[in-house]
Amino acid sequence: MNWRERLEGKGPGGWVIWQGEGASGLYFACNCPCGCEDEVIIPIGYQHEPNYGWGWDGNKERPTLTPSLRRIGSCASHFNLTAGNYVWHGDSPRPIAPNVWRAA
Questions:
Q1: 3 state SS of 18
Q2: What's the CA dihedral at 57, 76, 4, 37 to 10 degrees?
Q3: Local confidence pLDDT in tens for the 104 residues of the chain
Q4: Domains of the chain: which residue ranges?
């Protein structure tokens, strides 16, 4: 099953982490947590690996990514993912979706 199939049906904020092909590294993808239905895809690396995309704490169940994600264009959402939950920034022009996915 590819990452898109794993993301389908998860709703706003649903996310997956997967190993890219060959030596391309790890990736994080989510349905934008504002509910605009865009997919957000970023390269990630363990936080001890400098200069490799966004930092990731290695937790697959409740991940933390740093720094924040600021979408340019489209919905312009600005958020963090901390311990598997989205933290919304006040400079986002749209509110976070009321049905955003949250870690259990």
A1: strand
A2: 130
A3: 788 899 888 999 999 999 888 777 889 999 999 999 999 999 998 655 666 689 899 999 999 999 999 999 889 999 999 999 999 999 999 999 999 988 87
A4: 3-88
Q: How far is CA 101 from the centre of its chain?
A: 11
Alpha helices of 1-104 — where are they, by DSSP H? 3-7
- pTM for the whole thing? 0.87
How many beta carbons lie within 10 A of that of residue 47, not counting itself?
15
DSSP code of 52? S
Q: Rounded to 5 degrees, what are φ and ψ at 14?
A: -60, 140
Distance (Å, rounded) from C-alpha 58 to C-alpha 11?
23
Cα distance between the two ends of the chain = 24
